Each structure stands twice: as structure tokens, then as C-alpha cells.
Amino acid sequence: MPTISGAFDVTITPETLSDTAAQSGLGRLSLAKRYHGALDASAQGEMLSVRAAVAGSAGYVALERVEGSLDGWHGSFYLQHSGSMTRGAPALSVTVVPDTGTGQLQGLSGRLAIRIEDGKHYYDFTYDIAETP
User: Fold this and answer.
1) Are 52 and 85 in contact (CB under 8 A)?
2) Are 54 and 87 in contact (CB under 8 A)?
3) Which pLDDT score is estimated for 22?
4) pLDDT value of position 82
5) At a CB cut-off of 8 Å and minimum separation 6, what does 12 contact?
6) Which phi and psi (to 5°) does residue 21 adopt?
7) Which three-class secondary structure state does DSSP give residue 44?
8) Mean pLDDT, 10 residues at a time, over the chain (133 residues)?
9) In a designed cystine with 28, which of 15, 39, 86, 122 is the match (CB 3.0 to 4.6 A)?
10) Distance (Å, rounded) from C-alpha 44 to C-alpha 66?
11) Backbone angles phi and psi of 69, in degrees to 5
12) Per-residue DSSP letters for 17-37?
């Protein structure tokens, strides 16, 4: 399975919540991303987050639709995020939602890792494109 790496830009915008969600302490954010490199794509998504009373502890879940080209293959797919921070120690899982690939990306599976270095965002994406039945 190939692994590609590159940079991405992200804009995070706070959004309003339902009264029930707001009372629970959740935060809702919209995501707009631009991936550069072998993943040349734009993405739109939504995130739900919560901060714990303990400093440095939090959690989030998100979905984003990615559209563009992956190593020259064109189409779209969804990424599912599940992240947590335990007193400053991060844990993150970002995976392709099964069977969401379109166009030449049908059959796409994979995992995306996010790195932040000197305030810039980078990705490492290990993927496979299987023939679909």
C-alpha cells in the first residue's frame, strides 16, 4: 500500500448547536481544507468536540468529504476522524469511510495521519484502491 505525504490548509469556523447539544457542553465546528501534493483536493466537513474540566483533555469526532485527485486518480471519498487528548497526550484515528469512493477512487480504503510542525499541517496517507465487484 503506497503512502503519500503533503501539506494542507484548514479553516475552522464555529457553528451554532441545538439547545440540547449546547447544554451538554459540545462544540460544533465546520471545516474547510485544501490538500496539497499527491492528494490534490478540497474538503468540507463538520466536527463535534468537547473539552474536559482537566486541562489538556478533550475529544472530537468529525466527517469530511474530500474531492479531487489522489496520485492522479480523480473522485471523492469521506474521512472519519476520532480524536482524544489525555492531559496533553494526543490519540487520533482518521480512516476512509468504507465504500464512499467515487469515480476512479471507487474501492478506496486507507488511514490518514496528521502532523502539526511549526504551526503548519501535514498529512501522511496510506491507501489502497481495490477493484470493486
Assistant:
1) no
2) yes
3) 74
4) 98
5) 29, 30, 31, 47
6) -65, -40
7) strand
8) 96 86 85 98 96 94 98 97 96 97 97 95 97 69
9) 15
10) 7
11) -125, 145
12) --HHHHHTT-EEEEEEEEE-S
Q: Alpha-carbon distance 38 to 4, whole Å?
A: 6
One-letter amino acid for residue 24 of the chain: S
**Which pTM was predicted?**
0.92
Half-sphere exposure in the Cβ direction for 33 (13 Å, CA): 29
User: Is the torsion defined by CA of 88, 61, 31, 18 positive or negative?
Assistant: negative
Q: Would you say 5 and 35 are in contact if contact means Cβ atoms under 8 Å apart?
A: no
DSSP structure class, residue 131: P
Largest pairwise CA distance in the chain: 49
52, burial (CB in 10 Å: exposed 0-12, middle 13-18, buried 19+) = middle
DSSP states of 44-112: EEEEEEEE-SSTT-EEEEEEEEEEEEETTEEEEEEEEEEEEEETTEEEEEEEEPTT---GGGTTEEEEE
C-alpha cell at 121: 499541517
Quote the CA–CA distance of 54 and 14 in Å, as a whole number. Answer: 22
